[in-house]
Design a protein that fits this description.
The structure holds 2 protein chains of 2 kinds. By secondary structure, chain A is of the alpha/beta class. Chain A has 2 domains: about 230 residues, no CATH class; about 100 residues, D-Maltodextrin-Binding Protein, domain 2 (3-Layer(aba) Sandwich). Chain A contains 14 helices and 4 strands. A 4-stranded mixed beta sheet of chain A has the order 2-1-3-4, sandwiched between helices. In chain A, strand 1, helix 3 and strand 2 form a beta-alpha-beta unit. By secondary structure, chain B is an alpha/beta fold. In chain B, the strands form 3 sheets. A 6-stranded mixed beta sheet of chain B has the order 6-7-8-3-9-10, sandwiched between helices. In chain B, helix 3 crosses helix 4 and helix 3 packs parallel to helix 5. The chains are: A alpha/beta, B alpha/beta. The interface between A and B is medium-sized, with 27 and 33 residues. Chain A: This is Transport permease protein. Chain A: Keywords: Cell membrane, Membrane, Transmembrane, Transmembrane helix, Transport. Chain A: GO terms for molecular function: ABC-type transporter activity. Chain A: InterPro entries: ABC-2_transporter_component (IPR051449), ABC2_TM (IPR013525), ABC2_TM_bact-type (IPR047817), ABC_2_transport (IPR000412). Chain A: Belongs to the ABC-2 integral membrane protein family.
Chain lengths: ~375, ~325
């Protein structure tokens, strides 16, 4: 490998990029846009669900129980109802997501140890359902005993995110999502574009080696990936107070691994795609499972076994474990070595395949 | 064989059922401008791509500058320049950046690159445009830049695939002068074209038709083979005269050029008098003249020779 030649290809790539406004806009715009979208708009920890209450018991105990539930902040009184039937109507009309029905024999049922309050939930939304399920855990048995609440048999302590704020979970993962989206696409398109424009026929008649060409094209994008990582980190810390409990060095190292993994995948795609449009389609083929199966949106543990296998093959899954571990739990790369190793293996396989499949020939 | 820059034997390329190049034998002497003449789809580009190692031949042997191709294609790439049919430099880099990139990729040192790029910019009249983006230049300028890019590392052998298909006649003349300068300096040049006037400028040329090499030699050798077979007829009604000529079995082709008809006979046994006599029924006032054959006649004769008699009649 000739370093001057490698350098020439990198400089050329950067110069072309500087003149490509759309790509430039994507480099900076994509992280900012996604961070704001996921940070502000998407909140998986639901509060203020619209609710209505029918209290047919009207005892001191029943009123206290309803007030306690409202005080949790999970639900907010939005409509009034006189009968359980009206609650059902409100639910169907979509005006409320949760209905609380206290039967006339509330006190009797409580003494008997039977269900004393019914929570009706709009089950058409998964997240609402699980949020409302928290209400069912409410300790009604000893309403008069003030100390009883502290003595519930099982207590849940949220480590690392005590306030249960979504951005804390989402921002570290978002670094991975943005890198997956942009890095794979940029490299795939960068090479296919040369083929489309006819530049490749010129390049392959020069003494440039396959390795020089591939690495020279990829390294500038690796630098851009690190810039994107920095943008997300800065905004995440500044806007959403996301903690970085592990070392910053490890954060960048993990990001670097994911960047290289995605770039080598992009290279592989570029050896097969015939047009920029095809490259884009193939990228989305990888991007969608990455978002859904990596643990970014849904927990890995809840997936059926085949989905977990696919998940293990995606670089984003391993990055997700690394970055959440480093940023939120204060782990270091050594603690998470098998995920780092998985990323390294992915890079080695993809890069070897890409260089093998790229020929300095037209046939 | 050592004084030949290119030697190819039985060169064949098949794409599926299509035979793009069919058993072509080729010898290109050093320091010569060698032309490939043929219509679009005749296999010119495919042959050039096989010779510089971009395509693997289905059959045949290639020796370029003493190297076996495609096995030693990588070693060859340091010694050849290739100008593709489509402009293949980077539209979004400036003229100077393009040349500097190519020089560096060819392994030239920083110092040598600078000197060579300056020299080329001046020689190809691009020095006042060196900061301009290549994509914004005119056809003729792009073509000069592409040539400069192809010879930045002073290759021994230069492949040019229809280099003048997108430029005006003035630029074409200018371009050919540059080619002869290079040939004088010892560069072997293989250039494909579908322009007859360009083919006439070559030292030697090969005529390709549907993948077959149908004739080769110097332009003079090629035209000499048709001596006595070409006539020009001036008639008051050229369409009628053409119809009459087309019916004659000894006429290979008739082409109308303005008010004249250019006639190519199958054999050289026809005189002006016999032809005039034969056509007197159609048009008594016509004027028949024997003329020197040109490359277009050679091309027509060579490509018709392949076709079967019933196709000729059609």
């Amino acid at each position: 490998m000739n370093l001057r030649r490698l350098w020439a290809i990198m400089v050329k790539e950067l110069r072309q990029m500087r003149r490509d406004r759309v790509t430039l806009a994507m480099i900076m715009g994509m992280p900012i846009l996604q961070l704001l979208l996921f940070g502000y708009a998407i909140n998986l920890n639901l509060r203020n669900l619209p609710a209505a209450v029918v209290d047919q018991a009207q005892t001191a105990g029943s009123r206290a129980a309803v007030q306690d539930m409202l005080a949790s902040g999970v639900i907010e009184l939005k409509a009034s109802a006189q009968s359980p039937q009206q609650l059902v109507d409100l639910l169907r009309e979509g005006r409320i997501s949760v209905g609380l029905a206290v039967p006339p024999d509330f006190e009797r049922r409580k003494l008997d140890g039977r269900e004393a309050i019914q929570v009706m939930v709009d089950g058409s939304d998964n997240v609402v359902q699980s949020a409302a399920a928290q209400l069912a855990l409410y300790p009604l048995n000893q309403p008069d005993n003030f100390h009883a609440r502290a003595q519930t048999p099982i207590s849940v302590v949220s480590f690392y995110n005590p306030e249960r704020r979504s951005p804390v979970n989402i921002v570290p993962g978002l670094i991975g999502v943005i890198l997956t989206m942009t890095m794979v696409l940029f490299t795939a398109v960068a090479i296919v574009r040369e083929t489309e424009r006819g530049n490749m026929e010129l390049l392959i008649t020069t003494p440039v080696s396959r390795t020089e060409l591939m690495i020279g094209k990829v390294l500038p994008y690796a630098a851009i990936g690190l810039v994107q990582t920095t943008v997300v980190l800065l905004l995440g810390v500044w806007l959403f107070r996301v903690p970085i409990r592990g070392s910053l060095w490890d954060v960048y190292l993990a990001s670097g691994l994911l960047i290289l993994a995605n770039l080598s995948l992009g290279l592989l795609i570029s050896t097969r795609a015939r047009s920029q449009f095809q490259a884009m389609q193939m990228t989305f083929f990888v991007f969608l499972p990455s978002i859904l199966l990596s643990g970014f949106m849904f927990p890995y543990a809840g997936m059926p076994l085949p989905a977990q296998w696919i998940s293990e093959a995606l670089p984003l899954t391993h990055f997700m474990r690394l970055i959440r571990g480093i940023m939120l739990r204060g782990a270091d790369l050594g603690d998470l070595w098998h995920d780092a190793l998985a990323l390294l293996a992915f890079i080695a396989v993809m890069l070897t395949l890409a260089i093998r499949l790229f020929h300095k020939r037209l046939d | 064989m050592t004084d030949n820059a290119i030697h190819a034997q039985g060169l064949t390329k098949r794409f599926g059922a299509l035979v793009a190049v069919n058993s072509v034998n080729l010898d290109v002497p050093r320091a010569c401008v060698y032309g490939f003449l043929g219509p679009n789809g005749s296999g010119k580009s495919t042959t050039i791509r096989m010779l510089c190692g971009l395509l693997t031949p289905s059959e045949g042997e290639i020796d370029v500058l003493g190297l076996r191709i495609p096995e030693q294609a990588e070693a060859l790439k340091r010694r050849i320049g290739y100008m593709t049919q489509k402009f293949s430099l980077f539209d979004d880099l400036s003229v100077r950046q393009n040349l500097e990139f190519l020089a560096t990729v060819q392994g030239m040192s920083r110092h040598a690159t600078r000197a060579r790029v300056d020299e080329l910019l001046q020689r190809y009249r691009l020095d006042d445009r060196q900061q301009q983006l290549a994509g914004t230049m005119s056809g003729g300028q792009k073509q000069r830049l592409a040539l400069a890019g192809a010879i930045v590392h002073k290759p021994e052998l230069l492949f040019l695939d229809e280099p003048t298909s997108a430029v005006d006649p003035e630029s074409r003349r200018d371009f050919w002068e540059k080619l002869f300068e290079l040939a004088d300096a010892g560069t072997t040049i293989l250039v494909s074209t579908h322009y007859m006037d360009e083919a006439e400028r070559c030292h030697r040329l090969a005529i390709l038709d549907t993948g077959n090499l149908v004739a080769d030699g110097t332009p003079k050798e090629l035209t000499d083979t048709l001596r006595g077979r070409t006539f020009v007829i001036r008639a008051s009604s050229p369409r009628q005269a053409k119809a009459a000529l087309d019916e004659r079995p000894d006429v290979l082709s008739v082409a109308q050029i303005g008010n004249e008809l250019r006639v190519l006979m199958r054999e050289d046994n026809v005189t002006v008098e016999t032809l005039r006599h034969a056509l007197s029924e159609v048009d008594a006032a016509m004027d028949v003249e024997s003329v020197a054959p040109n490359l277009e006649d050679v091309f027509v004769a060579a490509t018709r020779k392949l076709a079967r008699p019933e196709e000729q009649a059609a």
